[in-house]
Design a protein that fits this description.
The protein is of the alpha/beta class. The chain is built from 21 helices and 18 strands. The strands form four sheets. It has a six-stranded mixed beta sheet with strand order 5-6-7-3-8-9, sandwiched between helices. A six-stranded mixed beta sheet has the order 14-15-16-12-17-18, with helices on both faces. Strands 2-1-4 form a three-stranded antiparallel beta sheet, covered by helices on one side. β15, α16 and β16 form a beta-alpha-beta unit. α3 runs antiparallel to α4.
Amino acid sequence: MVRLIDVALARGIRTLYSHVSLIARPGERIGLVGANGCGKSTLFAALLGELGLEAGSLERPPPERIAHVAQDIEAARETALDYVLAGHAPLTQARAELAAAEAGHDGMRLAHAHARIAELNEGAIVAQAKTVMHGLGFAEAQTGKRVAEFSGGWRNRLALARALLRPADLLLLDEPTNHLDLDSVVWLEAWLKRQEATVLVISHDREFLDRCTETTWHVADGGITRYAGNYSAFELAWLERSRQQDAAARAYQRTAAHLQSFIDRFRAKATKARQAQSRIKMLERLQAVEPARARRDWRFEFLQPLKLPERLIDAEGLKLGYGERTVLADVQFLVRSGDRIGVLGVNGAGKSTLVKAIAQELAPQGGELRRGAGLEIGYFAQHQLDQLRPDESPLQHLRRLALDLNPNVREQELRDFLGTYRFSGELASQPVGPMSGGEKARCALALLAWRRPNLLVLDEPTNHLDMETREALTMALSSFEGALLLVSHDRHLLRATTDRLWLVHDGRLADFDGDLDDYAALVLASRRDRNDGTQREDAAPTRRDLRKQEAEARQRQASARKPLQNRVQKLERELAPLTAELRELDSRLADPAFYHAGDAAEVAAVLKRRSDLALKVEQLEEQWLHLQAELEAIA
């Protein structure tokens, strides 16, 4: 169990939050959300014992029972499998004891060491380590490669695998999906649902949070608030709470204004002095309510294309690869104006190879790739962030690009455009080098949008983006009039912006006959069958098998949903009269005549009844939201 008791945490001289009291139950899966810089990672540092508290106390498991993902991985000479196994502390200790016993030629100690390893079942732990590595995208042959041979993204996967293998009571995950493909994200969700440890997750992937968390801790306004349910349930509850707080603030302001008006008019009159004093006391007792801080919705857009030809790009018999190695063969496709295509497939299947060829960054090995007249491609990939000039500002980058397209462009026009991507004022003139990954990604997107492309080719555009920027990107892509080709592990983005899916698999490209839920079911079934040894490593269930699994799943869902639906209906029956009475009280309190006609006792009674009623409605609505989250989780 994790318990925060009146906790305060600070970064430097700035207090991030204070008077925080929360409990994380054993086995609870919690999403930790909030704006960048609010203190989410600081809480992780405190839980790991790396940062002291300003005030309060923190109860947590001992350090050896806390698992987290290491931020920096040295280029170790050990194999990937050995690196992951080193995360299993009991096995590591047993192996060290065995080595010491063998070195000391101590027969009794050697026997105890062998007995301990047998008790732990070393073979089962090794098999589990391989299962975790396979789930995160490692092939069997890669388990024997040295850690130093892997790129940074794959080393992050190794660190995640090591953390998942560690026996722990508390698992801390900070942006675990950033370096994963969609297949691995789907597997990770299923793995986390089976965890017995308490899991605390920081993520900007809303669908990942929806599927693997059951509680949300929201860091905002100098505190941390607990919400029942996943991210979507939290968002609804937070918006409703903000609405109620604003309504209560307006009601307070109206009531206080009417009371003050009466006091100002009659406090000097002898005949009304007693009533005025009564109103003064009532005003003093009236509890002030601050309006909720308005959430500023930030939006940007991709400029509409200058040309929209019907046929943008098509391929026939295309062969793609590097040197003598062919990655994709016999590729055929056609992209028309207005097409919205999502590209699916495991890491290494050839998704990036395909989009590089389309973006003219990779020459085909064979076949035809025909580009329509007037085609203008806007290509975004992670490596482009490294190609930004670190000593130049976003304004300098955009000015150089803009002058090539239009020598007469004014600087104010460039600044206004950058402002829509949150590069306003001095930030537009600061060097790109020290900027965060999210800021560099926004700069690259701004440069891309200025070209007014009619085909956007985006390869994992959300890796460094926070929740707000991802939502802004989703809205921008939804209103873009050109065609879109999107590679992403963010299913919310894929669902909202694409209507066709391509699957890159086994060296081929084909239309995927299904939606993202079908694909997730296919991934899990394929991994399960591979682990059971019933299919080849690259096999996948047939559509007939998938339909059978879905029918069985629907039956299980119906049985599980029925009691929850009955409880939801009961709550709705309770809420209806209470909500109606609350509306009636608000109407009375909004009428100035009520304060002039009624006496002080009646006004106070109505205000108290309204406060009690609002609290009761809030509690019932929170239960309703929790039940809805459970129903959604079943679905």
